Structures are given as structure tokens and as C-alpha cells.
Amino acid sequence: MDEAAISIQGLGKTYRGGKRALDGVSFDVPRGQIFGLLGPNGAGKSTLINILSGMVRKTEGRAAIWGFDIDAHPRNAKASIGIVPQEIVFDPFFTPLETLELFAGLYGVPRAERRSMELLRAVHLEDKANAYSRTLSGGMKRRLLVAKAMVHSPPVLVLDEPTAGVDIELRQQLWAYVRELNDRGVTVVLTTHYLEEAEELCDRIAIINHGRLIANEPTRELVGKAQEKRVEVTVDRDIAVPPAADCFEKIALRGERVLEITYSKAKVNAGQVLSAVQAAGLGIVDVTTREADLEDVFLSLTRAA
């Protein structure tokens, strides 16, 4: 059980024409975690997921799912993973119940062991079980894709941008179900552009940029890497030009009396920043600080890469 849920070593993919989508990517997804896989558009995330699902052939390297090498044991590897794709893809003329029954059959799940209605209840689609799938809303279709990915009870679930176009209430329902699955022991791999979601949900995060792995750390440690901090200072009089000081990385006016100051916590502390404001002859009325978050780290790492 100490073996990784997904193990990727030196994975590379070069498309016809020379496009290098993945370049020697190596990392492990620990069992039982919610693992974030982040990166800008075109970074190689979807290529990696498609290699795991068997939709794309890798150029080099190896990958294993739940201990099964995707080349040596492709059937076992595919049976160990459920993929929720970024695109909404299913037959519009099938009902949700028919869709789940069909895919359970394709995975070889005996009729007596199928959990179609249980899965529809879990994703709040029980009342739509016999409606045509084309009549479902965008959020309902997303939830149906999650149920479809779970018909064979895989130990690993990959969610590729699952909340794109989903309203807040449905997003919360979806994450509640994902947490429930994770509590039952399902390993979840999540890609998303909502970085606040990744920061809240994920135990560990890997970042891919230009086909290369540029970060792979526990979420708290990754967020702790951010060196910039921001403070908003309300002063006691109107100012036309913000003051300058060596300890300010950046300073901007946010109104006639509000200064937004960015500084490096590796070089100075908040007390020194406020002292510099007072040294400019300004009285301080109020102070608001903003801690660095995953977005700051993400932008810093991807821009550097």
C-alpha cells in the first residue's frame, strides 16, 4: 500500500511535426490524497492525462497506475482509473441511467454489481435518471461525467477542469462529493484554473509549464515559497504622488488616501514598511495586509520558467 497511486518517470511526448508536449516529466501521486496538477493552457496537462487514459501514446518514459504499468498491463491500468474529461462528451439520446449502465457493461461490471442509481443519487441526478441527457444543464452534465467515471469503482479519479462553467452551488456539491470519495480512499487528481480551489482542496500540488515539471510539493510548503507580501495603508491626508523608499518593491495609489505597497518578506518586515511611510511625513490611519496565496506562487514560477 506504500506504492504510489500514479507513478510517472521520464515521461515524454513529441507530436508529429516536432511539437514537444511533455519533456521528461517525473513525479508520484501518493495514495489517498487529493493531488493538484496545475499549469497554464498548453502546458501539457491534458497530454499527460490522455497518456494515462490510453488516448495518447507516449514517446518515452513509463507510467503506472495503482502499480500496473500502462504498457505491460494496459487493461488493469485502465480499470484502476476513472477520467472526467474537460469536454462534455456522451450520447445525447441516452438517459443518465442508460449511460451509466452502458459504461458499466463496457468495463465488465456484472449487472448485479452495478451501482447506477446509487451514483446518480450521489451526484444529485436521481430525478433525471430517465430524462434524455441532452436536456440536462451544463452543471448536470458535468456531474453525470463524474458518475460515469466511477461506474467501475476505480481507486484513482482524474478530474480535468471539472468546474468549468458550473455555478457556485453546483461547484460546492461537486467538491463535497469529491471529498466524500477521497474519505472513502479514492485518490483524486485535479486540474483546474481556479487556484483558490486547488489551494483549499489539494494535499499536494505539481505545476507543469512548457511540458516540464517546475514544482511538486505539499500545498502549504508551496504557498510558503511566496516572497512578496502586500499591505494597504490608509493615511491621514490626500496625496497626489506616492512616497518612495528602498524597502518598497512596488507602491501604487488606490484612492486619494490609500497606498498599496508590495515588499519582499525576505528583505524587510511590515514594521519597516510602515516606518518608511511615517518617515515620508504621513500619518497612518488604518492597515490591511494580504498574505501570499497559491496564485502568487503559480505566477512567479510560470513566469520564471
Helical/strand content category: alpha/beta
Distance between the termini: 35 Å
- Looking at CATH, the homologous superfamily of the domain at 1-80 and 189-218 is P-loop containing nucleotide triphosphate hydrolases
Give the count of helical stretches.
Answer: 10
Helices and strands, in N-to-C order?
A: EEEHEEHEHHHEHEHEEHEEEHEH
- CATH fold annotation of the domain at 1-80 and 189-218: Rossmann fold
As laid out across the biggest beta sheet, the strand order is 6-7-8-3-9-10
Q: What is the helical fraction, as a range of percent?
A: 25-40%
The percent range for strand residues is 25-35%
**How does CATH name the architecture of the domain at 1-80 and 189-218?**
3-Layer(aba) Sandwich
Residue runs with pLDDT of under 50 for 5 or more positions: none
Query: What is the global morphology?
Result: elongated
SS elements, strand count: 14
Mean pLDDT reading = 90
Main beta-sheet annotation:
6 strands, mixed
CATH class category name of the domain at 1-80 and 189-218: Alpha Beta
From the alpha carbons, calculate the radius of gyration and give it in angstroms. 24 Å
